[in-house]
């Protein structure tokens, strides 16, 4: 199988890859790739996973950028260039997946479920209280810098039977009540 990768200067690199494992020679590719959110080795590996359909790497690359730097217009342009996609399609994917960060990710991320079961369980009041506590934790952080605690809403976390629920740093916390917020913030602030 032949793997053809385009560098930003427009030159092509043809490489042979085995049928079982598509891993291009990274030393030959190192001069081709340059993106701000990962190193050349990671980028080559990610694109190598989708040799015939580099556009399939858009969402994994967006996730990587979201977790590391946030997704800026420059990152969208870089991903579009490296995957051969249109910037508008990369931007549309960013807007579609609400869990992707447009800004630098906070050190701690809290998402409160506001779907019907959680809303009936009091998630709106929890969200307001958590936002107030997060504002205190984030006091004094310059605008544009990553926050210490980020708070937001999310859709169903699949914990409807134990509502209200939240996702704290990627882990689901359920049966949340106002008293639980102090415990959550002890680990964050």
3D structure, described in words:
It is a single chain. Strands 4-3-5-6 form a 4-stranded mixed beta sheet, with helices on one face. It has a two-stranded antiparallel sheet with strand order 1-2. It starts with a strand and ends with a helix. With 189 residues, the chain is α+β, with helices and mostly antiparallel strands. The chain is elongated, with a radius of gyration of 20 Å. Helix 7 (123-137) runs parallel beside helix 8. It has 2 domains: 2-96, no CATH class; 108-188, Glutaredoxin (3-Layer(aba) Sandwich). It has helices at residues 26-29, 40-48, 58-68, 73-83, 87-96, 116-120, 123-137, 178-188, and strands at residues 2-6, 12-16, 108-113, 149-154, 166-168, 171-173.
Q: Let me know the average pLDDT.
A: 77
Strand content: 5-15%
SSE pattern:
EEHHHHHEHHEEEH
- Tell me the span between the first and last alpha carbons: 52 Å
Helical proportion?
40-55%
How many DSSP helices?
Answer: 8
Shape category: elongated
Supply the number of structural domains. 2
Please describe the biggest sheet, giving its number of strands, its sense, and whether it closes into a barrel.
4 strands, mixed
Number of strands: 6
Structural class comes to alpha+beta
Low-confidence stretches: 1-34
Query: How are strands sequenced across the largest beta sheet?
Result: 4-3-5-6
* Rg on CA atoms, Å: 20 Å
């Amino acid at each position: 199988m032949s793997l053809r990768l385009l560098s930003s200067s427009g030159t092509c690199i043809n490489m042979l890859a085995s049928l079982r494992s598509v891993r291009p020679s990274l030393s030959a590719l190192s001069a081709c790739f340059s993106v701000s959110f990962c190193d050349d080795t990671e980028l080559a590996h990610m694109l190598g996973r989708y040799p015939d359909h580099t556009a399939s790497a858009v969402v994994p690359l967006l996730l990587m950028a979201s977790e590391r730097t946030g997704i800026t217009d420059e990152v969208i342009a870089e991903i579009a260039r490296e995957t051969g996609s249109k910037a508008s399609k990369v931007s549309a994917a960013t807007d579609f997946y609400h869990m992707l960060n447009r800004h630098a990710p906070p050190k701690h991320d809290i998402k409160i479920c506001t779907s019907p079961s959680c809303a009936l369980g009091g998630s709106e009041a929890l969200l307001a209280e958590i936002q107030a506590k997060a504002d205190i934790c984030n006091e004094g952080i310059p605008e544009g810098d990553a926050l210490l605690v980020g708070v937001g809403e999310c859709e169903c976390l699949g914990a409807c039977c134990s509502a209200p629920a939240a996702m704290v740093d990627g882990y689901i916390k359920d049966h949340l009540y106002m008293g639980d917020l102090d415990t959550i913030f002890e680990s964050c602030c």
